[in-house]
Design goal:
Blueprint (H helix, E strand, L loop, with lengths): L10 H12 L3 H14 L7 H11 L6 H6 L1 H16 L7 E4 L3 E4 L4 H13 L3
């Protein structure tokens, strides 16, 4: 792993994700964006990186700014964000174990082991 910069503004990548979903390439976009950030160490809020991700998966982009400002995709992103906040997701990553335990934000490995053991002991 070679993660990208810590202070990445993920709004634009998420809005572009909504565009990719509308074009039937949502999964491909997510995988390419994750690879760009976690494996290549790229800043996924950089427009050149976003364009490269789109190119890699065959996502047609004629005007990135127009896509990122499109009310349909902005609204879809905002809806996801509102749902996350409504469900008390306030950190990235957010992991749900056994449909019962939420681990929000970056946590030490030991915390994830503890939650996993608890879920296993409860038979969830």
């Amino acid at each position: 792993m070679h993660p990208g910069p810590f202070e990445v503004n993920s709004i634009q990548p998420h809005i572009l994700s909504k565009y990719a979903e509308a074009q039937g390439l949502g999964k491909e976009y997510q995988e390419a964006a994750m690879q760009a950030y976690w494996e290549k160490g790229q800043a996924i809020d950089d427009t050149a990186v976003l364009k490269d991700i789109a190119r890699q998966i065959g996502l047609e982009i004629t005007d990135l700014d127009q896509i990122l400002e499109n009310p349909e995709y902005v609204k879809a992103f905002q809806s996801d964000l509102d749902e996350a906040y409504d469900n008390q997701f306030n950190g990235v990553p957010a992991l749900v174990f056994g449909e019962k335990y939420l681990v929000s934000g970056a946590q030490p490995y030991e915390t994830l082991v503890q939650v996993t053991e608890r879920v296993k002991s409860e038979g969830l």
